[in-house]
UniProtKB/TrEMBL annotation:
<dbReference type="InterPro" id="IPR007648">
    <property type="entry name" value="ATPase_inhibitor_mt"/>
</dbReference>
<dbReference type="GO" id="GO:0042030">
    <property type="term" value="F:ATPase inhibitor activity"/>
</dbReference>
<feature type="compositionally biased region" description="Low complexity">
    <location>
        <begin position="27"/>
        <end position="37"/>
    </location>
</feature>
<feature type="region of interest" description="Disordered">
    <location>
        <begin position="26"/>
        <end position="48"/>
    </location>
</feature>
<comment type="function">
    <text>Inhibits the enzyme activity of ATPase.</text>
</comment>
<protein>
    <recommendedName>
        <fullName>ATPase inhibitor, mitochondrial</fullName>
    </recommendedName>
</protein>
<dbReference type="Pfam" id="PF04568">
    <property type="entry name" value="IATP"/>
</dbReference>
<keyword id="KW-0496">Mitochondrion</keyword>
<comment type="similarity">
    <text>Belongs to the ATPase inhibitor family.</text>
</comment>
<feature type="region of interest" description="Disordered">
    <location>
        <begin position="78"/>
        <end position="97"/>
    </location>
</feature>
<dbReference type="GO" id="GO:0005739">
    <property type="term" value="C:mitochondrion"/>
</dbReference>
């Protein structure tokens, strides 16, 4: 008696599941699955992601250029300090030839 009840219930279950998944897909809209979930996405999403990636790369490039400039300034400052130290030691006869 239990067996026919389960068979009838399982026969109706796939029909309900297909409606629930269809409603979920339709709720996403026509844009397709977003790339972050593994889908290819539509052209609008790909273009938007490309623009965001480009903007991030540009900001990183600007930051690297600023860091290189600061590094060059620090090297020049260290060179001036080294020359100053050399001049101080020469004046005090620290270096004897």
């Amino acid at each position: 008696m239990l067996r026919p009840t389960l068979t009838k219930a399982s026969a109706l279950r796939p029909l309900r599941a297909s409606f629930s998944t269809t409603a979920r897909v339709m709720a996403d809209g026509a844009t397709g699955a977003p790339p972050k979930t593994g889908g290819a996405g539509d052209s609008w999403q790909r273009r938007e992601k490309a623009n965001e990636d480009y903007a991030i790369r540009q900001r990183e490039k600007e930051k690297l250029l600023e860091l290189k400039a600061k590094l060059q300034e620090q090297r020049q400052h260290l060179d001036r300090l080294a020359e100053h130290i050399d001049d101080m030691t020469k004046d005090q006869d620290g270096e004897k030839k």
